[in-house]
Each structure stands twice: as structure tokens, then as C-alpha cells.
Specification:
Helix content is 9%, strand content 52%. It is mainly beta and 245 residues long. The radius of gyration is 23 Å and the shape is elongated.
């Protein structure tokens, strides 16, 4: 499994370097955004895993740089904290929840203004790829887990940017991230169910596996650097636009 992870990491770093290089040549307008919010370790049924509830929510932070690449298209490079969860399932019970953080770095594409909401609101959708480092694996012995702590993730986002000024404003983003490899190999343990005497204990199996995804609701702020957003003040919406007599 190490080869796909290293290949993904190389592709992510190459894409980030290409975006930075293009910005340095003056072909794009860079901006920086910082977002925080709850990260949910359980995912909706129709996206990830077949369980339709959220059990744990932990803080998340995301820092990203964005470059205007073409009309309505942005390149992004980001670093963020995510989470991973695992589930335990037997014939008697089910439980799932937070097991540790995943520290991600990646790149992606974002398509903006697909719906006209006016000059101050800008909707966006995006896809991204990242490499994550698994920071904690509590409750599991080392023999239960792979030696490689790295994982590749694919993500999607949808949100809205509010341009309160020419240089930026708040953002609201709903994100989904899915790991492309399990965080640990599935395994089974045998436990004893104690029953009143004279009944003997009953053996049963507990199946452990990692859950593949998480979601996050992030609120942040974006700063346009170094130039103001060129179309914030347009003739269609501007109060200072000249009118024909």
C-alpha cells in the first residue's frame, strides 16, 4: 500500500507547486482564507457508510490559499485537521466514534458563481485530494494496525462567500472527506457474555473496522491579496456607476 500513498502525495505537492508558480508569474490573484468549525466523525448514510447519525463532533481548522485560474475557476492549496472514527459491532451492540485526528495537506479545484446571487454573495463547489497523517490510534494495540500512518483522501465542498468589502469577507463551507484506504485493517475479537449461574459464559465476536469519512461545517474569513476583487463594484450593481442620460 505505500506506493499509492506516495504517488498521491507527489501529485498533491506538484499541483500545489504549479499553483504557486502560476501566481508568482502574475497570472492569478492570490487570496488567503482561515476557517474553523465542528468536524463530524460520523457521516450521513447517503454519502459514506450506511449509518445515519452523528456521534462525535470535534474542533477543526483549515488554512488555504486560493488563486483565480480561469473565469469562475480557482486553484486551492490547503492544510486542515480532520478526524477518523472506528466502529465496533456485535450481535448485541453497536458503537462508533472518534479515535484520533488526521492532519491533511492537499490541493483542489473550486467552481464559483454557478448561481447569480448578486455582487456580494458568491456560491462555490469544489473537489480536492489530500494526504493525511493519522495522529492518534488510541484503544488499539500495535498488532491491530498497519505500520504506515499515511492515508490518501478525496473531498468535496459546497459553500458561499460573502464579499463585504473589495478585499474579502466571511465564508460558510460544508465539506466531506473520504479516506481512500482504511485507517486500520478490520479485525475480530472474542468476548465473554456473563450469564447468571448456573449458565456458563457465552462467547461472542466483536468486529472492528475504521469508518471511511467525516464531514465538517466551517465558518471563516477570506482576504484577497494584494489586489481588490475586480468585479465587486460593477455597473449592474454599483451605486457609483454612471448612467446614460
Amino acid at each position: 500500500m505505500p506506493l499509492p500513498i506516495r504517488t498521491t502525495a507527489l501529485l498533491v505537492l506538484t499541483a500545489c507547486a504549479a499553483a504557486v508558480s502560476q501566481s508568482a508569474q502574475g497570472q492569478t490573484r492570490p487570496s488567503v482564507a482561515v476557517s474553523v468549525g465542528p468536524n463530524f466523525t460520523m457521516a450521513p448514510k447517503w454519502i459514506f457508510d450506511g449509518r445515519g447519525f452523528i456521534e462525535d463532533a470535534t474542533p477543526a481548522i483549515k488554512v488555504q490559499a486560493l488563486w483565480q485560474w480561469r473565469n469562475n475557476t480557482e486553484l486551492t492549496a490547503f492544510a486542515r485537521t480532520g478526524t477518523w472514527a472506528s466502529e465496533k459491532k456485535s450481535s448485541y451492540s453497536y458503537s462508533a466514534g472518534f479515535e484520533g485526528y488526521v492532519y491533511q495537506a492537499g490541493t483542489g479545484l473550486r467552481y464559483t458563481d454557478f448561481v447569480n446571487l448578486g455582487p456580494w454573495l458568491e456560491p462555490f463547489v469544489g473537489l480536492n485530494a489530500s494526504v493525511g497523517y493519522v495522529g492518534s490510534r488510541r484503544f488499539y494495540s500495535q498488532s491491530d494496525l498497519p505500520n504506515n500512518p499515511w492515508n490518501a483522501l478525496a473531498g468535496a465542498e459546497i459553500g458561499v462567500q460573502s464579499w463585504l468589502t473589495r478585499n474579502g469577507g466571511p465564508t460558510l463551507t460544508l465539506e466531506f472527506q473520504r479516506s481512500l484506504l482504511p485507517y486500520h485493517a478490520p479485525f475480530t475479537r472474542t468476548k465473554q457474555l456473563w450469564r447468571p449461574a448456573p449458565l456458563p459464559p457465552e462467547a461472542y465476536t466483536v468486529r472492528h473496522r475504521s469508518l471511511p469519512g467525516h464531514a465538517a461545517l466551517l465558518v471563516g474569513w477570506r482576504w484577497q491579496l494584494p489586489q481588490p476583487r475586480p468585479r465587486w463594484n460593477t455597473p449592474r450593481y454599483s451605486e457609483t456607476a454612471e448612467t446614460d442620460e
